[in-house]
Each structure stands twice: as C-alpha cells, then as structure tokens.
C-alpha cells in the first residue's frame, strides 16, 4: 500500500478540552535539561569534544582531545547554574521536570538529591548527550535499556518519561516498544498531548519545544538578552491564556539548560516570566508526569479502525457504498497515498472525490444514474439502500401526500427525459419544500450545467455519509 506516515492533521479544528485541574486556562510546564557530564568527551569514551549548545561561537569538535573551554562551560551548569535555578523554582513553589542524561546524573549525586528533595520529576534524557541519527536500531535499543538501568540505579526509581532530543527516526518507536514509559516527548507537533499507536502499544506523547527554549541563546537566530527570552515567553503565554479563557486550554512547554539559562543575565529573564505568570489565576504549573497522569485519566485512548490502514477488501467493504452503487471509486482511492489525514471524514472524502472527479464522463454518468429517483418507485417499494432510505426520510420524503407524490413523479419523469439521469440533491441540506423548489428551478438548466450540479450534489451526499462513520 502507498501510505504516508506523517500526521499533519492532529486534532484538526476541534481539539479536545484539556480539562486541566482546577479549570486552569493554561498548563505551563518547565523542563530543566541536566546534560552536564553526559556530553561528548574523550573522558566518556567519545571520539572528540562536544560542539552543541554552548556560548562558544563557531565551535567544532576536537577529535581525540579534551576541549577545556567547552568542558568548563558545561561544568558551570552543574556547579552554579543548577543551584541558581533550584533556588528560583523552589522559592516560587513550581515543580519542574528534569530531563536527566543517565550518565550525567550518575556524576551529580548532590544535584540528584536536591531534585528528589524538591519532588521534581526526573525523566530520562537518554544514556549520553550525543547524536543518535546514525545509530543502528539495535545499538539505540541497547542504549535505551542501559539508560533505564543506570537511571534506576542512580535515582532509585525508573524513569516514567523520556526525551532523547538528538534522536533518530527510530527513537519514538523504540521507546514506545520498551513499554514502560508513561509519556515520550520527542516531538514538537502540538499544543496538547496525544496518543500514538505503536503496534499494540498506546503511547502517550507530550510534545516539547525548541522555540520557547533557552537553547536559542546558543543558536542563530536566537536570544541575546534575558529580556528577549522573557518577552517571547510572555507573548506565548498571553496568547495561550487568552485561548484558554475562550474555552480552548492548551499546554506551554518551556525548555531550559543549566549552563545556559543558569547564567545571571539570562536567568533574570526567566525570573521575570515566573513572576509574571504567578500574577494570573487559572495557571497550572505541573511536572510532565502530572500532565501524563491527567491526560491518561481524562482522555484515555480509544482505538478505532482507520481507513489508511485497511486492506483493499475491507476498505471497499466499508466505503464502497459512499458513492451510490459505485465501489470502483473506493477501489481506486485505496491506491492513493493515504495517511492519517485520510482517517477522518474530510480527508477520506477528498480522496474519494479525487477518484470521482478524475473519472471519465461516462463513469461519472454511471454514478449519477445509480442514484434513485427522489420519492420514486424504489422508495415506495422499500428497495432503496439504507443510506438513501435514511436520507430521504430525513427530509420527509417518506411521508408525502398524494398530491406531493404526484408532483415528484411528474418532475422525475420530465427531468430524466431531458437530462438522462435522475435529479440528485443532498436532501440533508434541505426540507421537503426547498427540495421541490430546487427541482422546479433546476429542471430548466441545460444538460452540461445540470451534470456539473448533479456531480457536486453527489459529492455532498458522500460527505454526509462519511461524517456518519468517521470523526
């Protein structure tokens, strides 16, 4: 099957009500990445020094050598930056989630003790703070297992959340397959958590952020001052808070690093933001595991059959009657590049309509002639499809007076004689009177005009039918 795996529809235009505790208008979640001591370093068995996310401009790895300046910048994060942030968040009574690199945590027993004393969540940030994109699948699987083992040994409990960061295309799947994580955060694709089906596993995803993130102090374009960081966070918060007031509460993630935001001039911007949001009612500042627990309880996953994952036979069985007695449309649609966007009514409607529109005029005429007359002989004999029966009943066409039935019969006969196909209208857009008015108006159209209109109505009928079956 030709299938496109990326999901670019998500919740679409109708996201769920997050229903945050206390009816909060926005959930603001702070992540502190603890990577110091887990970065690339020949002391750690790596080929060279680190070259990512520091205040050294234009840095490059030093193969086979220690980079003293780089090491000292990372050391600052553990020695000074962490403690500044620890004081800031504990004073504000805001718990944070630590993304802890297991090998870094093993080299920081005092910081780990402080995290635990503050009741901060310590999620896993992998075994080492290194690039994973070129890792073989089995090597990465082994690294995940070792990260869990070492984390559990150092912290005393296994991690319930995971974020690799410098991940591969396999990371999310491998972590989900491990089976023990309440959430994975290696995505940046939504303002709300969502469920991802990985084999038999329903894995909760809590998206993270790379823009409301102090890493932008070390990348271009990025932040130069703490004030710029504060202003960006404030703007994001203000918009999300307003959306929450309008009934659509969301989640805001803030990403932090000890060696970056831990510097005084940058930390000042973070402090301003913390003070700012504490001036609002209806702001929930949870750990990520608290979000995971809430979402699993409030929005448990429910699996459903998905069109893009169906076999051809099942797809045609399910959707072959969407266009009246024309299963060939579904057969052709199954060969398209279907994906998550086609697992909802609008997306699947688009795929089916593409096949109808690209068909020959003769084939489309066959679809039109497959439709029954409105309130005609088939309806009287109760020989309509279930869909047509329900549609005609919805407009009262199953309860016509003798005079109305006579008029419909006259119009049906005249219309078919003139145009060569039945009068077609999406009856769910109308009532009995407006259907009769449209009938009397359209019968005077030329055939080309009416052929085009009939095709539009067929597509509209298909849309209604799909919305009865899919979200």
End-to-end gap = 23 Å
Strand content: 5-15%
Largest sheet: 5 strands, parallel
Task: Assign a percent range to the helix content.
Answer: 40-55%
Mean pLDDT: 92
What's the β-strand tally? 9
Shape label: elongated
Unreliable residue stretches: none
Can you write the helix and strand succession as a string? EHEHHEHEHEEEHEHEHHHHHHHHHH
Family: Belongs to the polysaccharide deacetylase family.
Domain NodB homology: 68-286
InterPro entries: Glyco_hydro/deAcase_b/a-brl, NODB_dom, OHCU_decarboxylase, OHCU_decarboxylase-1, OHCU_decarboxylase_sf, PuuE
Organism: Phaeobacter piscinae
Polypeptide structure, described:
Helix content is 45%, strand content 9%. It is built from 17 helices and 9 strands. Strands 1, 2, 3, 8 and 9 form a 5-stranded parallel sheet that branches. Strands 4-5 form a two-stranded parallel ribbon. A two-stranded antiparallel sheet has the order 6-7. Helix 4 (137-155) packs across helix 5 (171-178), helix 6 packs parallel to helix 7 (264-277) and helix 11 (345-357) runs antiparallel to helix 17 (447-467). It starts with 25 loop residues before the first strand and ends with a helix.
């Amino acid at each position: 099957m030709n299938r496109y795996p990326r999901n670019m529809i998500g919740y679409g235009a109708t996201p769920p009500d997050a229903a945050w505790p206390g009816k909060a208008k926005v959930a603001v979640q702070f992540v502190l990445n603890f990577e110091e001591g887990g970065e690339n370093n020949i002391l750690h068995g790596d080929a060279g020094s680190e070259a990512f996310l520091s205040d050294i401009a234009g840095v490059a790895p030093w193969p086979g050598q220690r980079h003293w300046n780089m090491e000292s910048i990372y050391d600052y994060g553990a020695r000074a930056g962490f403690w500044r942030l620890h004081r800031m968040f504990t004073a504000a009574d805001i718990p944070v989630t630590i993304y802890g690199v297991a090998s870094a945590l093993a080299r920081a027993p005092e910081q780990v003790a402080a995290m635990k004393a503050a009741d901060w969540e310590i999620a896993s940030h992998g075994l080492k703070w290194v690039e994973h994109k070129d890792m073989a699948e089995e090597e990465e699987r082994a690294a995940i297992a070792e990260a869990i083992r070492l984390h559990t040994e150092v912290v005393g409990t296994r991690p319930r959340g995971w974020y690799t960061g410098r991940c591969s295309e396999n990371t999310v799947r491998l972590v989900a397959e491990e089976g023990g994580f309440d959430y994975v955060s290696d995505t940046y694709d939504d303002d709300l958590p969502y469920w991802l089906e990985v084999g038999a596993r329903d894995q909760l995803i809590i998206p993270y952020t790379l823009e409301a993130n102090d890493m932008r102090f070390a990348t271009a374009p990025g932040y130069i001052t703490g004030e710029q960081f504060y202003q960006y966070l404030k703007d994001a918060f203000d918009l999300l808070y307003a959306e929450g007031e309008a009934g659509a509460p969301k989640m805001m993630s803030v990403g932090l690093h000890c060696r970056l935001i831990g510097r005084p001039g940058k930390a000042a911007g973070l402090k301003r933001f913390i003070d700012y949001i504490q001036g609002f009612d209806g702001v929930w500042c949870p750990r990520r595991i608290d979000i995971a627990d809430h979402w699993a309880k409030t929005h448990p996953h429910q699996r459903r059959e998905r069109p893009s994952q169906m076999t051809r036979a099942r797809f045609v069985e399910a959707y072959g009657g969407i266009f009246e007695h024309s299963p060939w449309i579904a057969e052709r649609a199954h060969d398209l590049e279907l994906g998550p966007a086609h697992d909802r009514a609008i997306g699947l409607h688009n795929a089916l309509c593409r096949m109808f529109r690209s068909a020959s005029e003769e084939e489309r005429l066959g679809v039109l002639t497959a439709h029954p007359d409105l309130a005609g002989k088939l309806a009287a004999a109760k020989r309509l499809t279930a869909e047509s029966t329900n549609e005609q009943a919805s407009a009262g066409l199953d309860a016509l007076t003798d005079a109305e039935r006579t008029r419909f019969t006259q119009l049906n006969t005249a219309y078919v004689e003139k145009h060569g196909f039945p009068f077609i209208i999406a009856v769910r857009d109308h009532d009995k009177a407006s259907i009769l008015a449209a009938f009397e108006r359209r019968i005077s159209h030329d055939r080309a005009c009416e052929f085009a209109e009939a095709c539009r109505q067929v597509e509209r009928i298909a849309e209604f039918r799909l919305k009865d079956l899919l979200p």
